[in-house]
Amino acid sequence: MIYFNKFILLLRGGKGNTQMHLLKHLFHTGLLFCLLTVFPNLLPAQSNGKTILFTGAVIHLGNGAVIENGMMAIQEGKIIHVGVVGSAFLKTADVIELNGKHLYPGLIALCNYAGLNEIDAAKPTHDFAETGELNPNVRSLIAYNCDSRILPTLLCNGVVYTQPTPQGGLLSGSSSLMTTSCSNWQDGVVCSDIGLHINWPEFLPHARESGTDAADAKKHHDAQLNKLKTFFSEAKICFDNDLTGESKFDAIRHIFTGKQKVFVSATLESSIIDAVLFFKSLGVSVVWVGAKNAISLIPFLKENKVAVVLQTIHRLPATGQSEINEPFTEAASLAKAGIVCCISNRGSWEVRNLPFNAGTAAAYGLTKENALMMITYNPAIILGVDSLIGSLQKGRLATLLICSGDLLNMAESKIESVFINGIEISLTENHQFLLYKKFDKKYSGQ
Predict the structure, then answer these.
(1) Residue 69, Cβ neighbours under 10 Å: how many?
(2) What is the CATH number of domain 42-105+417-428?
(3) Dist. CA 32–CA 349, nearest whole Å
(4) Considering just the CA atoms, what is the radius of gyration of the chain in Å?
């Protein structure tokens, strides 16, 4: 409690060397990390006690179910009623009649670097990778740029939550679940340090390489793989023996308690098999990121309960022997096999197309509601936050979209309102909308 009071005083305006000394002390004692992880939801919420009742809506719960002509009530930032009747709220609630419009859960985009990158061609705006190969201490949330001009474009297409992910090296660092509408990163945190990200070393000989070059490449690959495996093996030993302190392994100890997910980026089937079996020997489960040709590994993925993040729906087939529609049908094949799978995008500005990527999957084997699950409920399950977000069910956060058309159809989708924790968020206060208004006014008379 003494440290907590010091922390509050610091926030109120500590200065100079005293402030820096206290910050260092908080970091060394681990208190600052605890303050960011103990409170998983730091977003402001509807607090006036007033009930808002949405009526006459087509409610897409996000878990595969739909309620026609439904009613939903929210209060103090949470959903308190979902169903076809809600007359008990009519006398005291602010009623919003939707007249057949659609209610959707806020969309969740995993494993991208929106908020960490502004202009692809301008390196000074890139803040998604650190130097070095093993960076367990890197935390993407403190680099999250809430003033990014990209984030409002995500929000306008319904992407309310994102997982800004560090890139580069073998062990890139940890990611957090953030909202795409916030004034600073502290307000944007939903769950901090929820994922640890690894780029598994892969060796793919090139046909034009000489024998010597190929041998050197293989030697480098083996050295990288050994370095990565050694690091995690030593970390497991430290965890099992309760060795804590200033160790570089302290930053990843939560992967052994299950509080932090391990996301492994790999493209080759042999690579993900190696990664899954290695982490299984340490008692850690894995999420496969960037999966291609995952259909060929369905029995292995099911046996080892590996969740999958499909980062690119609009791509070429994985191999020369793959079906021409393999990228589009992969989500349906994994879902049919009972594998927890979600759809995402790897980049930054591309993430705004998330609902339309799910729409493509819906045209190739998935139902519309199952495709919606791929960008709402399933990502929440993968992150372990499905009791908070990802579906419109009683007790969940009141984060929702009002859409006058089919959210997954680019030609019909028109999001009219977004609520985050019961608070309506403006969709017009962004740079691209202002540019649209400027030039629409300029050329509308021509």
Answers:
(1) 12
(2) 2.30.40.10
(3) 32
(4) 23
Separation between Cα atoms, residue 231 and residue 248, nearest integer Å: 10
Q: How far apart are CA 12 and CA 5, in angstroms?
A: 11
Query: Containing H/E element for 257?
Result: none
- Per-domain residue ranges for the chain? 42-105+417-428, 107-389
Pick 107-389's CATH classification: 3.40.50.10490, 2.60.120.10, 3.30.70.1520, 3.20.20.140. 3.20.20.140
Confidence at 50, pLDDT banded by 50, 70, 90 = confident
**Spatial distance between the Cα atoms of 397 and 127, rounded to a whole number of angstroms:** 30
Could you tell me the two tokens for 232? Answer: 């995690």
Q: How many C-beta atoms surround the C-beta of residue 178 within 10 A?
A: 27
CA dist 292 → 309, 312, 318 (Å): 10, 9, 6
Quick one: 24 exposed, middle or buried, by C-beta within 10 A (0-12, 13-18, 19+)? Answer: exposed
Q: Could you read off the pLDDT of 369-379 as tens digits, one per residue? A: 999 999 999 99
Query: Residue 393 has what pLDDT?
Result: 96
Counting residues of the chain whose pLDDT is more than 70, the rounded percentage is 87
State the pTM of this model: 0.86
- Over residues 324-383, the pLDDT tens digits come to 999 999 999 999 999 999 999 988 999 999 999 999 999 999 999 999 999 999 999 999
Residue with tokens 């302190």: 245
